Every structure is written in C-alpha cells, then in structure tokens.
Amino acid sequence: MGRFTYDHGGIVRGPRDQKRIALIFTGGDFGEGTASILDALGRRGIKASFFVTGDYLRNPNHHPYLRRMVADGHYLGPHSDSHPLYCSWENRAHTLITEEAFRADIEKNLADLAAFGPSRSEMRFFIPPYEWYNEQIVKWASRLGLVLFNFTPGSRSNADWAPDDHPSYLPSEKIYESILTFEATQPDGLNGFLMLLHLGSGPGRTDKMHPRVGPLVDELHSRGYEFVRVDDMLAGAVPGT
Predict the structure, then answer these.
(1) Could you give the 3-state DSSP secondary structure of residue 195?
(2) CA 96 to CA 92: how far, in whole Å?
C-alpha cells in the first residue's frame, strides 16, 4: 500500500522511486483530438490509457478510434456511461447517487466497451466522472472489482477541457509550461504521475492542447521519463485499499 498515494480512498499517484508516467486520456462529449493523439503516441511507440463515457462510445465517428486504441496496445477502460456527479461539490461526503444506479451505470459502460475488444477482467481500473468521488464510491467500485484512481495533482494538465470563456480556462502553452515547471521544481518530479489530458474540448475551446502532446512527450522523454499504461503503473493495486 505504501507504494501508492491515496486521496479519499482513490489512488492518485504511482511509485515515486521510478521515472515513469502514465498518460491518461478521458473522452466524453468531444473527441476531436483523438486521431492526433493516437498518431503522436504511435510514432513514438508509447502506450497510454484511455477512459471513455457512453456518449463517446455512442458516437459512430469514434468507433475507429476505439478499435485503434485496442489494436495499438493501449489500455481502454470505463469513465461511466452517463457521466453523473457522484457527490456534492460543496460537501464531498454527501453522495448523490444510489449504489444500484452507480452499478447499473458502470456495468453498461463496461459492457459497451467490451464490444471494442477489452474483456471485463482486463478493465480493472476506473477514473470517475468529473474526477470527483468519495470513500463510498471507492467502496462501491471495489465491489465490482474496480480500482478507482484519479489524476495526480500538481500540474495543470487536466485544465485542457475548459472553453475560452470559462473561469478555469488556461492557455495550452501555460498548461504545457506548468507540467515542465512542476517536473523541474518538485523533489520527485513527475515520478509515478497519473497525468490526465482530454480527447477533446469541443468548439468552445479554440486553443487545443492535443497538438502539444507529441512535443510534451518528447521533452519529458529527454528528461529521462518512461511512459507506461495505468495497469503497469498501478500493478498490484487491490480494489478498495
């Protein structure tokens, strides 16, 4: 258990003693950056991890991407079917969904994902919608055999979804710089990082992050980092611990 860092019961960082990063890409309503991201990873022989919602899965335009993720050896896993908010923003301990509804939503997401190749037993890792959860959600996920994880805090990589007019908006160049600054100034750098980026941000964001994925990977590789799938980074993790 000491190998991983936890927050509210979910794993938020892998082992800090190795220069390894797990790139995590989530997809929901939008996925306009998927092809570019897959191309960038493919040219470099890098394996990443993709977690998508039912909305992403139900878009026929995304089906070739999903098949390619599996064919290229990436990890494909659940991000919920309907992207519900599990707990209150103001009071995180207050769960907003029943266990029955949680289970039905995740099971549908898993079943739909399985149509693109991964078996149910292979889909052990789960990142919650909105990256927001509590200890109760972690327990419910564990009852389904799922290890709940979240992105590693510190950089601003996960801000790449925000539209131009949103209070959380950060230019892609600033996101890129935040990652490299964190790496250079923290004692453990990005060791064990679960780095979250998005497959799309929709028409509301004109400054897309996905063209920078390739250069970012190149820079971090030059700093000595290896890129691994989430199941490699979190090997040995047990649901609910």
Answers:
(1) strand
(2) 10
